[in-house]
Specification:
Helices cover 49% and strands 12% of the residues. Bound molecules: 1,4-dihydronicotinamide adenine dinucleotide (NAI). Residues 500-598 form the 3-hydroxyacyl-CoA dehydrogenase C-terminal domain. Residues 319-497 form the 3-hydroxyacyl-CoA dehydrogenase NAD binding domain.
Length: 720
Amino acid sequence: MTALKFELGADGIALLSIAVTGRPMNVLTPELLAELAQAVERIAGDAAIKGAILTSGKPGAFVAGADLKDLVTAFDRGIDAVEASKASTEISALFRRLETSGKPYAAAINGLALGGGLELCLACHYRVLADDAKTVIGLPEVQVGLLPGAGGTQRLPRLIGIPNALPLLLQGKQVKPAEALKLGIVHALAPAAEVVAKAREWLLATPSAEQPWDKKNYRIPGGAGPMAAHASQTFIAGNALTSANTNGNYPAPPAILSCVYEGTQLPFDTGLRIESKYFGKLLAGAVARNLIRTLFVNKGAAEKLASRPQGVAKSKVAKLGVLGAGMMGAGVAHVSAQAGIEVVLLDASLEQAEKGKAGIAALQGKDLAKGRTTQEKIDTLLARIRPTADYADLAGCDLIVEAVFEKRELKAEVTAKAEAVIPATATFGSNTSTLPITGLAQASKRPAQFIGIHFFSPVEKMPLVELIVGKETSQETIAKALDYVAQIRKTPIIVRDFPGFFTSRVFGTFTQEGLRMLLDGIAPALIENAAKLAGFPVGPLAVSDEVTLSLQQSIFKQQDADGLDDKYRGRIGRPVIDKMVDELKRPGRRFGAGFYDYPEGGGKQLWPGLAQAFPVKAEQPEVEVLKQRFLSIMALETARCFEEGVVVNPIDADLGSILGIGYPAWTGGTLSYIDTLGAKDFVAQCQQLAQDWGERFAPSPWLLARAAGGERFYALAQAA
Ligand code: NAI
């Protein structure tokens, strides 16, 4: 056996230790399942075997569920709902055979048990869980657009009651040992090293080979029967919870509710069949595929730097220089010091630099108050950050991240000063948000070592870093920048130098589309709600207020001066900005007045005067159309970036759009959105939008050609 070790003790107890080879953690592989099936039959057929213990032969984790990479392979093969249901039915049948084979099974859970791992434990008659700080158990399938398809939606509610089971199933909430015991998910806790002994004790003293739900007169806990009044209340609450969180974009929560609702009113085995049917539909659907591929597998791949230039030795930053200790510079210093890097934090005066460091200390203080760190760790972290105003302190830095004011001349000045001190091999990164990298590199004596390293605010929270490759940036520099991003545990994307790079350019089309809707006579509340219903975290009017309307206006003016080609500007909302700033004197949140009012006591409301400033038409479009406008305009701009070579790898576009600018996760990203609809349907949708709302929606000839050829951005992506 390669995944399951079978040892029979003199006391008649079989010890089954799971140790899946070739994977860092135990996952449910076909080999493991096949070997488990053999073991179950051997145990059932051998009168000398009294019972069995299931445990992990790999410390730290029991079983972490399915390997998401295996699922992506299945997607790429084009798995359909029938095949997916069948896979779920087969695992369910195995677990059902285990629990009804007449022999008692005890799960000695010596580490985390998630998804299918926990479902296997739930099929055992007794569960003892390692009582340590790292262990959690749960059914996180919903987070990847799936449901627990190996009995989880049937056993958990029957074990702990529907109200207690729903948060675990619908939100994927993971619980620690004490809570698992309190909820009744496990029977006992023990130190990790003793769970096997405890399981053996149970098997020898008080074994039972019958599950509660297979006993006569079984009733679901917490109610007189499946249809008890409070149970239906729970479903109403569950429904509300589901739709409030997902706005109908995510099919998994309603499917889970259906499994629990239908399944708990029917015999157990029928419940399992219902679960497999819903599981198949979800696995074959687009949302699970998009979520898993972009946010789990490709995000992981990006972290492992799949697109890193070949043949460049791996590098590590030991000493980092940050120029500018403002909001962004301090954030960069913070996350870098957290990754163990020595940081020189330079500003125009020592006082300013120290202010930046004090901000970091304050954030750490908040974490301390919440019990997330210790004073000792804070002291170590802060000791790594040296505030200064003296360029000589930058000597020996491997990397510079420049984050001074967004002014070309100033950036040129600090670049020259830093380069006079740092080693000839050092990399220079600019965190500019709007200035083309190739232009900034002109101030450098080593433009090949110059690159854009664009962080997002707040740096501590935002996972994305956009690397911008200038005309002269070398492959080695790209590799070094990628290594640095990996070192600070963020997700990099690589884009070509272009005004607005990738993320700002695509994001601009979202906010501008929202402003344009005001000019179309659409009610402001409808605009904001449509964006939220589509899955954007914030509406375009609120986000424009945050960014500050006067700042957007000055960017437009800068672009005018640079003589940019109009088609890239996404400036269709400019009349709104000009009117808000110049005429109505409402330049944004920072000034207490923008599209919203910001009363002193906190909170915000849409400014009632908007309806007069931008008259609302009597007839309003369907919310669906507005959602399409937001989703499509950003997808179109991304396709244009792809066409122009600003992004080369669809993964970069998808990750950048979700992690950087809040494109809804259910789509899988801007290019996956097109792939999911199918390029043909996408261009048809855009042509309709162009007819109704303006030429900006007209697909380019290049995109039309791709659509006609039935091509996909992900060659392997399958139609939903
Ligand atoms: P900020 O105004 O908070 O910080 C700029 C810092 O640069 C200040 O502490 C200032 O004292 C310092 N500085 C000015 N002149 C200097 C000099 N001669 N030498 C050394 N330090 C000097 O600005 P913020 O928001 O941190 O932005 C910095 C850069 O990051 C800008 O290029 C901006 O476009 C870019 N960026 C900003 C984002 C944001 O959301 N705020 C997002 C991504 C990039």
